[in-house]
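Project standup — Tuesday

K.O.: blocked on the structure for the chain from last sprint. Re-posting the sequence here as requested.
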Amino acid sequence: MPTFIGHVLLQSFRMTMKSLSCVASTTPVNRIRASGGWRHSVAFTFLVAALSVLCLPNAHAQQQLEDIQATVLMDGTVVTPGADPLDDAVVVIRDDRIASVGSRDDVAVPDDAVVVDVSGRYIMPRMVDGHVHFFQSGGLYTRPDVIDLRAARPYNEEVAMIKERLPDTFRRYLASGVTSVVDVGGPMWNLDVRAQADTSTMAPTVVTAGPLISSVEPSEFTVDDKPILRFESPDAARDEVRRQVNAGVDLIKIWYIVRGEGPEAFRPVVDAVIDEAHGLDTRVAVHATGLETARAAVEAGADILVHSVYDRPVDDAFVETLVDENVLYVPTLMVGERYGQTFAQTLDLTVAEHRIGQKDVIASLFDLQVLPDSLLSDRMLRMIAQRPSIPSDSVAMQNLKTVHDAGVTVFAGTDAGNIGTLHGPSLSREFELMRAAGLSPAEILETATVGGAALMGRDDLGRVEAGMQADLAIVNGNPLDDLARAFDVDAVVRRGELLRVESLLPTPPEAAVQQQLNAYNAHDIDGFLDVYADSVKIYGYPNRLQMTGTSRMRDVYSQLFSRNPTLLANVTRRMVQGSVVIDEERVRSMSSDGDVTHAIAIYHVNEDGKIARVEFVR
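H.V.: unblocked you, prediction finished:
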């Protein structure tokens, strides 16, 4: 077998030639496992420097680089829903395909392979989030038709920010182990999102619909390229279907909204849209959250129901129709919960969401407590004051269990982009709710892997098997034992390219500080302590040690959160100097009468991205 250094040299030549550049490749496939994590080898660092000068390999080297095509994941445990785990596995990847999978005894390591040691880790199929909206950020200002805060942030500014951060949004999906997403409706610039993802290694595969064909059209979307279009005429709706299909959408989306009337009023448009789309070999996804509306959509020929039925339990006839017509079903259990939690200011994010989610988007969700009261309705002000507990949707959960047990194809989706539902890691909360509904971890993972592949119309995704596209996640624990492990991602393989999470999500010191601030405002002790070093030291001014270690912090801050239900801190000014972050903070409700105090906090972040020391100056 060629030496690792030889592999590195040849692989670097191959990547250099592919890019037609004199810049040496730093592709993550050329990494080795080291104690405490993954790192570049010293030899590789030296060779990259050399290759930046030696741009043109000779004919012999060129022939060798053409022969280097395989990557091998060695000694991990393969986890595929519906199959027994395979320990000490060998996974051979050639180009963008899995060439072979098996034990060391059954699978030979090719001579031309770069071998990546993944011992102690689990190799699982990549996941699909089957319901997202890229035209929405997940933040507070993204749905002016739900809560109109355009006086605080104009809608065109929100859209511009969303577009600007798309590369970062893409990377957060990959860092969550999600390498494919289905955008089920938005402006025509959704097609630009898909094109941008298609041309980037650090992006998920995107399947997309265009503007929602709807019975209503919110006036608050004050842009030319609107995400939702109202149609009364079946002929006009047919024209819109043809426009979208000719433009290249993958799906047609119907927003079947019924307000004070039955589904019959909009049914002629629904019939026309589905008939026209099917005539053009295009599937139709329907938003229909009431049982009778969902029944009408399925009778009209809908291929996908992109939400659960929320209003009442599904009946046997409806479920039988879903099975007979092979209608795909996505529950989106979490999205309503997150709207309610945001409006009541009782957000309960998972640790994965705190860690992987966009920190400024999460921070915006607490702005309801600092915006002028004149921008908020009386009802919302009462919710914020009372902070009611937001129950999970028990009807939707019951219906999920019913349709799943009946054999309906269920796929996981979050409705990411809606207020409080973050792009990337929100599947972690959706999984928790699916588990509470009665599905097993294996069944849940199947909805995001094999089920997601069915939604995308693909039969070469969702399993770790020979012949499948090489879209994989390498995680730090068995997701069949603990679903949270599915989001503890060490690396992903996207179309054969191995990407380390730390290369996808660089964590500057201010990201760690903002995560703990977001979790502080959510009164979430686990998300809060996630970015603190175990041996952290907390000092008061001047240089007075107050506590040491996260165990002590857990005791102190758990009590603080419990005693202060309106506790809120917001940064009025921030300065970053290397690994030191200095925040000037305004803190409310540190005392029983709700007084506001001001503090300066100095955070020292170590090389692992953890806060190792804090100094408070009041």
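K.O.: great, moving the ticket to review. The CA atoms of residues 191 and 249 lie 7 Å apart. The radius of gyration is 26 Å.
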